[in-house]
Amino acid sequence: MKHLQWFPGHMTAAMRMMEENVKLVDGVLLVLDARAPHASLNPKLDKLFSGKKLLYVINKTDLVDEKDVKNTLISFKQDGKDAVALSAMNKRTVDLLYDKIFSLLKEKLDRNKEKGVFKPVRIMVAGIPNTGKSTIINALCGGKKAVTGDKAGVTKGKQWVRLRELELLDTPGTMPPAFDNQTYAKHLAYIGSMNDANLDFADLAFEFLAEMKERYPELLKSKYGVEDCQIPTLELFDKICSRRGFIMRGGEFDYDRCATAVIDDFRKGRIGKIILD
Fold first, then answer.
1. Closest of 46, 60, 58 to residue 84, by C-alpha
2. pTM for this predicted structure
């Protein structure tokens, strides 16, 4: 598979916009995908927000086993990172996030109260593409205020969203300018954080199946009916094509259609609960 890299021009502008606006906010929610929490970290954002109250929000926990979510939280705590795990589709966990935001900024709020000053808490919401930043904002608001989508790059510019005592700044997703760790790069491609139009899906699905047959063979067996997943990856790909009916005229396997179906099955949670890193 070719070296993965995706840093379109608008991301440079997005980074510049965040640099200009970070001084306006009291804290930052850095949203990560629970399926690839470590791959979702962008070192440039960590550095940019180093002087602010920073909360890592591990989203999409409904797609990952509870024990894996707990292990991720332990790992972040060991690294000195303040983190909370949630599913933006679960109101109870979103309410916990709301409480956590105010707990994080309690000192500032108390100082303002002592001075007789009331200002809404201003929070920047940032992260790589397609981790659910806008969905979290809408969940906190209890309505559709931010533009959302299931592909990378939906949010193009900044959006301020006001709710009760909070003002949230939605920002475009930004990638690291370079991927030294190609395993993490592949994981981001699997979860949809890269632009699909720039990816070779047949190659991507091949890499995904190669990884999954080692780590989650029982899930592949259950989903695709392949009894022995420890066969060569191309043979596994062929068997899935055959079982799903992805066959072209002449009897050749339609790898492109099969690849799209396999990656979509993963992204929608239809294969099972999977954590990548």
1. 58
2. 0.86
